[in-house]
């Protein structure tokens, strides 16, 4: 049976000032779609994963946001991480719950903060990945790259596997770290490389077996959590065990060294909205050649700007800016420098301006 | 005896969105001085004009703002214009009140929305102008030009007058319309030309006599208003008479054709804040090379920006912008194009967006 586990633990400071400590980007409507990113992530599964097979892994302090924003999910479907320990423990925790419920569970692990405009394309890729996972593979979706991005890890595909699905399933020859530009360009020219978007599909038991083999420390703690699941002290066991849980990513800790790893391409407009300039890829240009995520705007001699505002905005003679205007903070930056938002956040942190973080 | 009449009738749409129909720029703290422009105009007279010799001419709908912002003024010192009829009737109305109170009144007519950083220099020029006015001249302050501005009228000075004051008094050879750039450059190179800043000083009776001679229609109405001043029906007479008052400027209607016109230079950093980019002339650059009128800011790779904000502002990689951020509207423009703010206001007017005007 197919399940989905949405990983909603990120903090998303790169989308400050809309993404805040109290409301990270996955719980915000960043694209102006009328739905938050986590809601869109759940929407994207409709017709493929029934509501009662959809789970969320989330930190304690955001559990209420997840519950509010995904009212179709019952309390047992909101899996609490006591603290952030990166993706390997989070995925392990989801596997514990799902394996406990259904020893044959096949699970799609999906970051909560991605934008994927082509839902049909996404579901088609996911269906193939599930078939491959049922055939015994740890599957990752390889994002078809659109340019020589240096901010992502890459996946080099290997031979095509003899699994009969509508789109090809490949072995993974190698996971590659973030490349420099020249290397990224050779990847793009080659055609056999994909972005690692952090979307994985596998049987719960197989993922747990890989964690046992490669991360025994994580595994033994997951076992303790699973053993206590039906007991009254489940949450105190979780709290105690989690405290010493190692912090490690699923890529580094499991996928890179896993057996039976496979991939299938995803070419559906995927974007992880890693900074404000990424909105230009997921919002259409309006008639005046600007990208309006939110806000009423009047633009004069102004093009290529990204606008996210809670009030009326007038632009005169400015181009290629990202303008993010929230109740208590205003960010204006050139689109090419939006990665420096982290410096703003760091400055506010140093100054103790927690009300703005 | 010396009086001052502050002319506070303007609407100031060029400083939208801080300047609004309900609160024109003269009633706003545009420069971040902690005082509104009209308050600074009154402050600038301290030590020269006693509070009870200070008057304001203002429209009915802004009388409460004037009274609130200048609490030292009693009700008779707030002179109401029933509607805007330009500067000749406004100055005439002030003369009516002041001549009625003191037939020897000498009056400085001062726009409420100018910035003049050097108060001592301003007062020195004004003292000399008052001496010349007492000697029988209609005096204007000629602003020493700092560049070839094409947005102002100019004054060509004539011969020096034999009036013994600390700074020279000249006859006015000519008032000149706004020049084109080439002409403005010749004015600047010549050295004998000044900006017409709209600051005038004269005896009230002499100004009224010039209005009588040159604008008899205006004068006859002013006479009716004066005749009713002490009567119970003063305000109904004013309302009725004002309705048909011609709309005409003091420059065109009186000064250009007046006898005994004189000028003395004002070189005190005068600025009429005609658009947001003018703030760069009246606010010092901060250490990060930006002009902060109001607002807490963090600037990264950003220089030459003018910021007026009610919230925290972060700039990344942007230069030479004017950023005006109020409760319900945000304006971002390149400093070189801020005169287009009037197009924004016009657009809002056409759309019936009165709440933003």
Report a brief summary of the structure.
Two copies of one chain form a homodimer. Chain A has eleven helices and 15 strands. Chain A has 357 residues and is of the alpha/beta class.
List the helices and strands and how they pair.
The structure is a homodimer of 357-residue chains.
Chain A: E1 2-7, H1 37-43, E2 54-59, H2 63-69, E3 78-81, H3 87-101, E4 106-111, H4 119-134, E5 138-143, E6 154-160, E7 170-176, H5 181-190, E8 193-203, H6 204-214, H7 216-227, H8 234-243, H9 250-253, E9 261-266, H10 279-282, E10 291-294, E11 297-300, E12 306-309, E13 312-316, E14 321-325, E15 329-334, H11 341-350
Parallel strand pairs in A: 1-2, 1-4, 2-3, 5-9, 10-12, 11-13, 12-14
Antiparallel strand pairs in A: 4-8, 5-8, 6-7, 6-8, 7-9, 14-15
State the domain count of chain A: 2
Order of helices and strands of chain A: EHEHEHEHEEEHEHHHHEHEEEEEEH
Average of the residue pLDDT scores of chain A: 96
Largest sheet of chain A: 5 strands, mixed, barrel
Number of helices of chain A: 11
Q: Say which CATH homologous superfamily of the largest domain in chain A is assigned.
A: Spore Coat Polysaccharide Biosynthesis Protein SpsA, Chain A
Q: Identify the quaternary structure here.
A: homodimer
Percentage of residues in helical conformation of chain A: 25-40%
User: Which structural class should the secondary elements of chain A be placed in?
Assistant: alpha/beta
CATH-defined topology of the largest domain in chain A: Spore Coat Polysaccharide Biosynthesis Protein SpsA, Chain A
Given as residue ranges, the uncertain stretches of chain A (5+ residues, pLDDT < 50) are: none
């Amino acid at each position: 049976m197919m399940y989905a586990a949405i990983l909603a633990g990120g903090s998303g400071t790169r989308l400050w000032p809309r993404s805040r400590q109290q409301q990270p980007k996955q719980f915000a409507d960043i694209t102006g779609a009328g739905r938050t990113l986590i809601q869109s992530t759940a929407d994207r599964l409709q017709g493929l994963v029934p509501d009662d097979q959809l789970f969320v892994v989330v930190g304690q302090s955001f559990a209420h946001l997840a519950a509010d924003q995904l009212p179709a999910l019952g309390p047992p479907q909101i899996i609490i991480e006591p603290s952030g320990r990166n993706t390997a423990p989070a995925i392990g925790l989801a596997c514990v719950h799902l394996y406990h419920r259904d020893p044959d569970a096949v699970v799609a692990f999906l970051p909560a903060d991605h934008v994927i405009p082509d839902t049909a394309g996404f579901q088609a890729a996911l269906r193939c990945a599930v078939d491959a996972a049922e055939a015994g593979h740890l599957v990752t979706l390889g994002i078809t790259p659109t340019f020589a991005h240096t901010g992502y890890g890459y996946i080099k595909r290997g031979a095509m596997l003899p699994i009969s699905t509508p789109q090809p399933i490949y072995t993974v020859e190698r996971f590659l770290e973030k490349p420099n530009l020249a290397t990224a360009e050779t990847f793009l020219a080659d055609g056999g490389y994909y972005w690692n978007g952090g979307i994985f599909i596998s049987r719960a038991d197989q993922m747990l077996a890989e964690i046992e083999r490669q991360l025994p420390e994580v595994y033994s703690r997951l076992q303790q959590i699973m053993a206590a699941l039906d007991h009254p002290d489940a949450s105190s066991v979780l709290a105690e065990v989690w405290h010493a849980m190692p912090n490690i990513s699923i890529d580094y800790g499991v996928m890179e060294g896993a057996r039976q790893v496979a991939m299938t391409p995803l070419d559906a407009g995927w974007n992880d909205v890693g900074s404000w300039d990424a909105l230009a890829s997921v919002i259409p240009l309006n008639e005046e050649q600007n990208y309006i995520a939110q806000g009423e705007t009047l633009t004069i001699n102004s093009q290529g700007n990204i606008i996210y505002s809670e009030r009326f905005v007038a632009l005169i003679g400015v181009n290629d800016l990202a303008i993010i205007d929230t109740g208590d903070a205003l960010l204006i930056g050139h689109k090419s420098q939006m990665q420096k938002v982290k410096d703003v956040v760091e400055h506010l942190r140093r100054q103790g301006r927690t009300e703005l973080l």
